[in-house]
Structures are given as structure tokens and as C-alpha cells.
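Morning run. Coffee first, then this:
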Amino acid sequence: MILALDRPLVCIDLETTGLDVDKDRIVEIGLVRLGLDGKRQSVQRRVDPGIEIPEASTRIHGIRNEDVRGLFGEPTLGKLGQELCAFIGDADLCGFNIASYDLPLWLAECRRHRLEFPMAGRRVVDARTIFVTKEKSWDRFILGPRNLNNAVLHYCGRAQAASFAQRDEAGEGLAKSVDQQKRHSAVKDAEATLDVLLAQLVRHADLPRTVAGLDEFCKSAALEAKQAAAG
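And here it is:
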């Protein structure tokens, strides 16, 4: 395997009530665990967030209040948390924009539900940070935003991108309604992110081949970006 692992790597993706990492809540979590032998295991759980899901968020992930809330809805994260934390174990983490979004929100939810999730010694690899750092000539007006759809297209090819992309029945872009849209699930996004990360290692021969090296690469890139933004 092109990526050297000294412990498992878990890719995490969240569907949520919104973009505020402190106040918003998880409605679906997808985890894909890459083992030392290269084999993958996955788990996906929907969650009662305990608050209303805004219509704007439902338009993105397709999950309605009635899907997760109420007597016949889903359990809270407090009830599912131990199962999810056990699946992750002491693994390192990866994701697409995980450093700015998925991980802070997950940690906020862990605090909210009094779940123990130690971060000491845990390394984090952000495939979006690699995308942004290594593709500096990317023209968003021509190629589109650096989102997961475009990362799959760029690194994994058109065939995989076509099966992954959210398209309407005519294949002309995002569907207009929740029922028409071929929704991503959190675990599908996590699988795609892991595919992108491994493809990035193939494309960019100068990237570190260890999780520890990639963790340092992402931290350094994020710091440089922050300093550049500050002027």
C-alpha cells in the first residue's frame, strides 16, 4: 500500500444541521477504517440531533426532521457515541476539510454528550488541505470550487466522479429537489475522501508516505495559509 500505516486510519464525514461547528449538530456520521492490511471497514449512523434541521440543510443532505426525530426516529449521539468511539479507537483521522469542520464539530458534540475522545497523539490528515496546497494553479472559475466532487474528478477520474457526483435525472448538475437528487451518504463521502487521499499520494510523489508526515504537512500548510491571509 502506498501509505505506510503504523495504526489504523479512520476517515470521518458528517452530515449536520448547519456549518457552525460550536452550535450545529450531527444528523449522520460515516466512518471508514483503513486497517494495516489495507482492508476497509465502514459504519454509518443517523442521529437525532436534538434540534430542528433547517430546510437549507435538508436541501444539501436530504435528511428531514421526520427521518431522525420523534418517537420513531433515531437515537441521540449520547446513545450511539460509545459505539462510534470504539469503532474509531486509537486510530488516526482523515477527512475532507476535517481540520476546519468535521473534527471541531465532532469534538464539540463529544463534549456536549460527555463522550471521552482523547486527541493526544492522534494525527489528522486533511485531503482538502493537500488539494489546495498542491494544486495552486487551480482556477475555480473554470474548474469550480475545491470541493469533494471536484477532488474525486481531478484525482480519481471521470468514471468514478460520474458515479459519485450529485446529478439530476438529465445529468445536468445538482437536482432541484430532495426527492430527485441522488444523495450522498456520509459513509460514501468518507469512502470517496479516502480514495482521493490515496490518489493524491500517487499524483504527488513528493508528499510524505506516512500518516505522521502527512499530519505535519497539513499543519504546516494550514499555518502558512493563515499567515498569508493575515497579510
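Residues 167-182 have pLDDT under 50 and may be disordered. Good start to the day.
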